User: Fold these one by one.
Assistant:
Number 1:
Amino acid sequence: MNQCDTPEIPLLAYDAALDELISHLSTVPGVSQKPLMQALGEVLAETQQASINVPSVDNSAMDGYAFNTADLASAGATILPVSQRIAAGFTGAKLAAGTAARIFTGAPIPEAANTVIMQEQVELENNTISFHTRPEAGNNIRPAGNDIKAGHTILQKGTRLRAQDIGLAASVGLQSLPVFDKIRVGMFFTGDELVEPGQALAEGQIYDSNRYTLYGLLKSLGCDIVDLGLVGDTLEATKKAMLEASAKADLVVTCGGVSVGEEDHVRIAIEQLGQLHLWRLRIKPGKPLAFGQINHTAFIGLPGNPVSVFATFCLFVCPLIKTLQGRNWQKPVGIPVVAGFDWPKPDSRREFLRARLEPDEEGRLVARIYPNQDSGVLTSTVWGQGFVEIAEGRTLKAGDKVDYLPYAQFLD
Ligand code: AMP
Ligand code: MG
């Protein structure tokens, strides 16, 4: 048992740690108005209402013929001359009694018509239609306001704008939206053993992968990045990088050097430069995680192991970033699924296994885990599509219920 596991120094549980982290943060406030296409992926700063109905008028859902059900024959075929033609984008005249209007999808229903019959259901001869069916009033008509009613809320403040969101904004005529300014995240990576890809590896060296993982994760959440690259394992270098990053960014994320070894300087640096709010968590992977602040800049030190970086980013950095961004995010909710594996050894820490859902022999989806769950095995994050969450002290048999958390719930 190492120092972190002794009962005298209890490790902080996942939920408590997350609540603690969030309690120290507030939204970075700047707002700017951006054209819809530039607003994509940004966070909406004000709730939006529609100023018009969508559609604005009753219109046809089909290519066909508009008429009034009062003109249906009392028996036998209904026969109606076609008195006008209305294409989408044009407004017809009031429909003459006893006639039909040729109409196309999206075209406004003419006054005095109350139904549309599909063109496939009529016979057309000499500009006259005949049919035997008895359509009802309202058939194939999309009423005004069917999608959106004027005055109603269309998009909530705090929404990260997706394709369908900017599409909806466009549908009510908005050409730009107020969005929160992007947050700036500073990052650096500690470890004298690290070299960048492209260089030859000397003995004892490894390639720096965390920088690329973290870059991708931050980009996928729409952050601006201040990348300070590799930093050597000295307290001086660590403090210098930390000061520079915190001066330039709203949040600083580092990898490595956060444990209790003599080469781990991150925690001490943060204690000397600012405040350490939290350190050491009862989770696996990712026990030695440090959270604090330097002046007004939040700081989170992730462990160096590549899987820990990916997992703790999802579990902690994502909620942190979403809070700073002003998003109205919710804690990811585990999807209850059937375990397709045994987990015989309980752990005092909550485990987040790299997993994915696959059909079993009967076609039911079950959670399978990557066979090697070591925190250095980055392949597990690539193979996996989510985490299986295993509570502290729990064992499992195949067939038991477990919670599955898709990566996408964190990185959306
Ligand atoms: P540390 O947290 O600094 O003790 O690092 C834990 C493990 O992660 C060590 O095996 C490191 O070599 C490895 N590691 C740290 N930083 C990186 C990085 N940027 N890329 C890949 N592996 C790393
Ligand atoms: Mg290190």
Number 2:
Amino acid sequence: MIEKVLIANRGEIALRILRACREMGVQTVAVHSTADADAMHVRLADESICIGPPAAKDSYLNTHAILSAATISAADAIHPGYGFLSENADFAAMVEEHGFTFIGPSPDHIRLMGDKIAAKKSVSDAGIPVVPGSDGEVISLDEARKAAEVTGFPVLIKASAGGGGRGMKVANSAAELDEAYTTARAEAQQFFGNGAVYMEKFLSRPRHIEVQVLADHHGTVVHLGERDCSLQRRHQKILEEAPSPALNNSERETIGAIVSDAMRKIGYRSVGTIEFLYEDGEFYFIEMNTRLQVEHPVTEMICGLDLVREMIRLAGGAPLGFTQDDVKFNGHAIECRINAENPETFAPSPGRIGDYHAPGGLGVRIDSALYSGYSVPPHYDSMIAKLIVHGTNRNECLMRLRRSLSEYVIDGIETSIPLHQKLMSSASFVNGEYDIHWLEAFVSDDGEP
Ligand code: ADP
């Protein structure tokens, strides 16, 4: 039984984990940098420990300080949230070696899925369809040319250790291949300390559709349907919805069953997300995230489940206690990521919040650690709030979202609320007709692409 959890994160997700713990009667330990001494998760936790200066590498990524804090506070378990150390297999292994429970998958699964070449091979062997491309790593320009001939242009060169949408290069023709390959390799080495790259067919107008799974330590795996995360800017998700407006029930059930079956085969446990590109009725695996995701609330809203609570229960060894037949999807949910940034130039806008008023009412959920008088520090990710809305159908959800966005007041800094408002008036978005490239065009053309 887990009785005390150290939350190795900050911002809204630290608060989200804290809330689940409190409802379960589990004690909480917050860790924080000096820049976050006044943060909401620190104020609300049962105990808090400062683990270092503002720079993440000295605080939220400081494994030794975090393990010391867990020892001093006599925590049983560590929840890593998302980002920071959540997909660091060495950290997960260290946590277990020090006698704490890591609230997440096994270090081996984190390591496997963190290596995208190995991940692709492993899920493909387990029956999941993947994007056509090179057979593993592409080690030379010569190999790149040969692989591209088989795949056909355009191609995408991707870093095996990549993440956050960085280190990807498109080549539209043989003439562009040399430069794309060489830069992708150099950037992979520079960003991720690992120059290994692979090649995929570049899909021209896919949607990004991901499947959420939940797996216990006893071999039970369920899928919780899909999320459509096609609205992206620079490969960063801006708005997510569940279910996807593009799928029918039969496609949903088929891909869900394929994913659950594959996760059972590889012995996966905890939460996980299998990301696909979807084009012309076909699914192509791109990567698996071995952690809780930013957009998990849309799944929670349509399934009526608390994913953080489930993660904690499962990490303590509890059986899932329900089967796929018990999972019922209800209505529609959309999440808007609200960032502290200029809605047109996307320049970060940290600073002190003046008036703060969050929307409420039926079906409206705010996951945020903001409060009036809080200063958004410049050192971390610019996402400051998630507005999640649920409705009996997509249309009701959109009406509710428009209403909620118009009520939301965050004074003192610039936010992406106006961008979301603009999106709500776009016919393509309202009709659910968009692919992964649509938002970039919508933003740069100042309106409908
Ligand atoms: P990361 O781990 O950096 O997020 P992903 O493999 O998940 O990398 O890809 C991120 C995004 O890049 C996807 O959501 C999609 O928008 C785009 N992308 C990835 N692979 C392809 C592909 N083969 N064709 C077209 N777009 C792609």
